[in-house]
Specification:
Helices cover 33% and strands 19% of the residues. The protein has 220 residues and is of the alpha/beta class.
Length: 220
């Protein structure tokens, strides 16, 4: 089974991965599922990445990835709002050549405490001088807090998340935080982890941020 995140992979690298990496080899069945040609696989992976990345409900508080098994797309990741799960499936199943979509995206709990943690972790990460470059809004505190200091408690940052591209995604589940995404180097990854881990009421932080020299993460 081949696993991918929603960010685009250069075609040459993807082709090499599909032809040489054992991790992307299909399981050997008595009657193996039909698969796409390499050319079709490259096209479909790019289409899925493009569809998922362009979803209007995909925010800094979500993370999406997918796997390919035969001619089936398996959606994975976390959605802070249920609508993202259904939107992702509806977008991907319309891609020509996709025969089936299995939706394993986990919808995160609707929790006021998690909502406050999202706002706090966002502010601690994206108002750091060295991390502002990973936010299209350049770490604008108002994007997270809105017009008032207590906006997260009053309305819900989950339902009105900061807009624009964010390279560091913040997943919060029952007080625990997972950081996903891409940064330039290990130092920035470590700073993001320290900022998240120092947030009040956070029970623990898992750092899944990737950078050019980081060893590849094994899919979960």
């Amino acid at each position: 089974m081949a696993h991918f995140n929603l960010y685009r992979i250069p075609a040459a690298l993807l082709a090499l991965t599909l032809t040489s990496a054992p991790a992307f080899t299909l399981a050997q069945d008595a009657q193996p599922s039909p698969t796409w040609s390499q050319e079709d696989t490259l096209r479909i992976v790019k289409d899925v990445q493009k569809k998922l990345a362009s979803l209007t409900n995909f925010s800094v508080f979500d993370w999406l990835s997918f796997a390919i098994e035969g001619k089936t797309i398996i959606l994975k990741g976390y959605a802070s709002r249920p609508i993202l799960k259904s939107d992702a499936e509806n977008a991907v199943k319309k891609i020509p050549g996709v025969e089936k979509v299995v939706n394993e995206i986990e919808v995160l709990p609707n929790s006021p405490n998690d909502d406050r943690i999202r706002a706090a972790v966002y502010n601690r990460i994206y108002t750091q001088a060295v991390l502002r470059k990973y936010n299209a809004n350049q770490g604008n505190l108002a994007r997270a807090m809105g017009p008032g200091a207590n906006i997260a408690a009053a309305t819900s940052i989950t339902n009105a998340p900061p807009i624009g591209f964010h390279s560091i995604h913040i997943i919060v589940k029952s007080g625990r935080v997972i950081l996903y995404g891409f940064v330039n180097n290990k130092t920035d990854s470590d700073i993001a982890f320290i900022q998240a881990n120092g947030t009040p009421n956070v029970f623990g932080v898992e750092n899944e941020l990737q950078f050019p020299t980081a060893p590849p993460k094994q899919p979960k």
